């Protein structure tokens, strides 16, 4: 992705700072990482018509692929949707007239799976709040996919909404426990445990993988911690992840073709921003050439993610990925090994790829190697030999003859 001057960015996440009260919607933290990602994708899909439409739709297979789990696992999707319908969103803010407004709503007022389509709705009051960038900031999918902990993603979501003011303000410690989803645990009533198991790991992941850096501060009454707040600053090393695809993308022919296919405005702009017009156009042309694919949007999602090759006619199912041409020259054994590793990665499902990374990282003996892997992924120079051995175990024969 090319560097884009921040002053040229457009979109909801790039608007000017709110001068007065910054409102926040507090969502109960008792959501799994998968449910949090699902919630963000549903909101992204619905955002363009959040106020004008009472119901929204997205292809169920596309939804599964976008949050990174088996696209045939409808039971998991049902369970996650049920969790969102049972989750409470609460806001306490100043309205346009400066009067205090408190409200509560289920995160989803309705969800249904029928004919391979997920249909869902928000309550009118919550939809109004979610659509206002002064109240609720959309989470870029490129940032979301980097999180491996539900507590870290919960902390990021609740802090990112205050990025322009530089601080979350003081939260009563009981509210913070609720936001992290541990309010029902006696173990986390002790701040020492809460800090060691929830706060420190979540802060570390947010600071390492997101576009902001957060610093916790506490307030005490005697020796007891009563409140907590987080100071927030932009992470200069990862600020590029904050790109909210600009309106300029709407003028291109590739954007028009995506919209004609049924891709939402925001998703089309995010794809163009993340992958570039040339790659999106190539994948789009490939998908459009396929006859009998039931869900072309789902297929395109998988193609851009690198996990699709061919779908049986009339099914829209994903077959194992075909080897793709690598941008790495094959003139040396090392380049050939890397090419094969990248092909093996492409052949895995999104869920498998996440699990592969976690498994490999857990096997690294020291922080220096783990940091290099987090920075460079499967192209990590410090872990090249270990990576080759790992993929030979995952897919025997991968490295055969690569020397």
UniProtKB/TrEMBL annotation:
GO BP terms, alphabetized: DNA replication initiation
Please report the stretch or stretches of sequence annotated as the Initiator Rep protein WH1 domain.
18-159
- Which InterPro entries would you find in this protein's record? Initiator_Rep_WH1, WH-like_DNA-bd_sf, WH_DNA-bd_sf
Q: Which GO terms describe its molecular function?
A: DNA-directed DNA polymerase activity
Pfam hit, one: Rep3_C
Q: What SUPFAM superfamilies does the record tag this protein with?
A: Winged helix' DNA-binding domain
Q: Which domain of life is it from?
A: Bacteria
Per the record, the similarity remark reads: Belongs to the initiator RepB protein family.
Designated name of the protein: Initiator Replication protein
């Amino acid at each position: 992705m090319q560097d884009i001057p921040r002053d040229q960015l457009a979109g909801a996440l790039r608007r000017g700072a709110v001068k007065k009260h910054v409102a926040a919607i507090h969502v109960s933290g008792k959501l799994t990482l998968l449910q949090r990602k699902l919630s963000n994708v549903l909101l992204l899909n619905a955002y363009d018509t959040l106020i004008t439409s009472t119901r929204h739709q997205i292809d169920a297979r596309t939804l599964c692929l976008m949050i990174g789990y088996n696209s045939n696992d409808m039971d998991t999707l049902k369970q996650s949707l049920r969790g969102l319908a049972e989750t409470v969103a609460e806001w306490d803010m100043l309205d346009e007239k400066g009067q205090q407004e408190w409200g509560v709503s289920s995160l989803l007022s309705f969800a249904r799976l029928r004919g391979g389509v997920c249909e869902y709705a928000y309550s009118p009051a919550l939809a109004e709040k979610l659509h206002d960038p002064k109240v609720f900031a959309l989470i870029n999918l490129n940032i979301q996919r980097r999180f491996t902990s539900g507590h870290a993603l919960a902390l990021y979501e609740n802090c990112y909404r205050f990025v322009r003011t530089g601080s979350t303000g003081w939260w009563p410690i009981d509210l913070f426990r609720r936001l992290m989803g541990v309010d029902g645990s006696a173990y986390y009533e002790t701040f020492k445990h809460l800090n060691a198991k929830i706060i420190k790991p979540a802060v570390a992941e947010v600071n390492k993988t997101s576009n902001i850096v957060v610093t916790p501060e506490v307030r005490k009454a005697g020796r007891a911690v009563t409140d907590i707040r987080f100071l927030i600053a932009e992470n200069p090393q990862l600020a590029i992840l904050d790109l909210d695809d600009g309106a300029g993308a709407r003028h291109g022919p590739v954007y028009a073709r995506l919209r004609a296919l049924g891709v939402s405005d925001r998703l089309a702009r995010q794809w163009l921003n993340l992958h570039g017009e040339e790659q999106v156009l190539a994948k789009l042309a490939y998908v459009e050439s396929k006859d009998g694919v039931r869900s072309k949007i789902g297929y395109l999602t998988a193609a851009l993610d690198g996990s699709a090759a061919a779908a049986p006619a009339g099914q829209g199912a994903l077959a194992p990925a075909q080897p793709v041409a690598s941008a790495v020259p094959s003139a040396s054994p090392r380049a050939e090994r890397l090419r094969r590793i990248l092909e093996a990665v492409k052949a895995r499902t999104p869920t498998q790829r996440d699990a592969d990374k976690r498994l490999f990282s857990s096997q690294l003996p020291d922080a220096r190697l783990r940091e290099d892997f987090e920075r460079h992924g499967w192209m990590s120079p410090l872990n090249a030999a270990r990576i080759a051995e790992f993929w030979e175990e995952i897919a025997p024969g991968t490295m055969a003859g690569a020397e």
